[in-house]
Amino acid sequence: MFRLDIDPKSITWQRVVDVNDRHLRRIQNNMGDEEKGNERITALTFPSPARLMAILGLTTGLQDIRERLGRIVFGTNTKGEAITAEDLGAAAR
Q1: C-alpha 33, offset from chain centre
Q2: What 3-state class would DSSP assign to 39?
Q3: What does each of the 93 residues of the chain score in pLDDT, given as a tens digit?
Q4: What is the CATH number of domain 8-88?
Q5: Could you tell me the sign of the dihedral formed by the alpha carbons of 62, 68, 71, 74, in that order?
């Protein structure tokens, strides 16, 4: 498997779960001794997936929705290049 070399500080999409817990709205990751220098503050997002519903409302067919979902950018690599859902293999099939 190839590495995408994702810059964790560039991730624009938060984690999403179908549970409402206020303690999960601000999480600090990578606090162990082995992770020094890689700490990151993140959160879980609880609202409905409005971005995906907007894409669904704009599509003209199955091929169109697959292409649109594949172009979703969620962050960049360490070179500043966009990383998409297609790069992750997470676009619709």
Answers
A1: 26
A2: coil
A3: 468 888 888 888 766 655 556 666 677 777 788 877 788 777 766 555 677 888 888 999 989 989 998 998 889 999 999 999 899 888 766
A4: 3.30.1510.10
A5: negative
Cα pseudo-dihedral 25, 13, 63, 82, rounded to 10: -170
Q: Which tokens hold the place of 89?
A: 């293999």
39 neighbors 31 (Cβ within 8 angstroms): yes
Enumerate the domain spans of the chain.
8-88
DSSP reduced 3-state for 90: coil
Residue at token pair 């995906």: 52
